[in-house]
Amino acid sequence: MIRSTTDEWGFVAKLLHWVGAALILVLLIHGWWMTHLVARPDRLVNYGWHAAIGYDLMGLLVLRLLWRWANPVPALPADLKPWERRAAHLGHFGLYTLMLATTLTGWAMAGTGRVPLRQDLFGIEIPLIVQDRALRPLLEDSHKIIAYLLAALVVVHVIGALRHHFVKRNTVLRRMTVGIKS
After folding, report:
1. First and final CA of the chain: distance in angstroms?
2. pLDDT digits (tens, 9 = 90+) for 72-101
3. CATH architecture of residue range(s) 11-176
């Protein structure tokens, strides 16, 4: 099934979810690694790779939002308590908000370094939205704080999915994966 239904996520939604999850994980780990462990002379190359992956995540995120708006969203299980429904909706809203905020602050920061970072992984030239070096410290701090908040919410999201699967024993996790039966 390509498109989502009110019962299950379609193949495209699953693909966008898992590719996005992989890119977010790579960016979070790489961002921490390059700012804490990489030798100073090697950082520019790493910043370039980080920005390139971030640009592609931003494009994927836009595609994901468009796909989500054009397709039904599977209903939550009927036996969820009201607080669980609110938590699910707030969690997803928070994830999308933090993904957008992280990519936008990264994009803004890409033009504030000594060497502007303009290309994605495919070599596509990305226009810079900020080129004022004086804004770099603010953007860098904002990007880092938002990324840490995103990482924390991703952990909560994973715990919630595992809780649905192992404790509540419902279909929430199964319908976003391929091949998980129980």
Report:
1. 20
2. 999 999 999 999 999 999 999 999 999 999
3. Up-down Bundle (1.20)
